[in-house]
Amino acid sequence: MTPAAFFQQAKDEGVIPLGAQLQSSFQFGVVADELAQLVLKGVKTATASAYDLYEAEEPLPAFGAYDVILDGQNQPVGIIQNDAVTIEQYLDVNAQHAYEEGEGDRSLAYWRQVHHDFFTAAYHEEGKVFRENQAQIVLEKFHLVYPQ
Q1: Which residues pair with 139 in a beta bridge?
Q2: Short-list 48, 61, 34, 53, CA closest to 111
Q3: Burial, 14: exposed, middle or buried (Cβ in 10 Å; 0-12, 13-18, 19+)?
Q4: pTM of the prediction?
Q5: How far apart are CA 10 and CA 60, in angstroms?
Q6: Spatial contact of 37 and 147, defined as CB atoms under 8 Å apart
Q7: What is the DSSP letter of 30?
Q8: Beta strand pairing status for 66-70 and 22-26?
Q9: Which of 29, 13, 17, 41 has its CA nearest to residue 70?
């Protein structure tokens, strides 16, 4: 099923308002299946992305917007709605946000370790250098509105 069809199904079932628009569909990180399951279980209620890696014409995530979460095979598994979107310096991301991302032991130390590695590779793919003391991070908090 396509993300658009999955989103329409949620609308048809009355879970999402008929006038709602789909913001995007995406996989979480490099372990998409594992992270999607954390979302479905209600453990993962936040995520982070690199502000510097958004394309000029690519809109930033928006408050109240809906996204379809994909598994590792690009199949829809759930729909989330953003409760908050902020931009912070990488070094200002706090332990609460790390906990809400739900990964590993949910500590800030774990969050910094895996996100440093992830962002370093992502920046490198774009011909850029990830610098912890300069990087801006888009932080999203969300809730699951439609599990499959």
Answers
A1: 48, 86
A2: 48
A3: exposed
A4: 0.91
A5: 23
A6: no
A7: S
A8: parallel
A9: 29
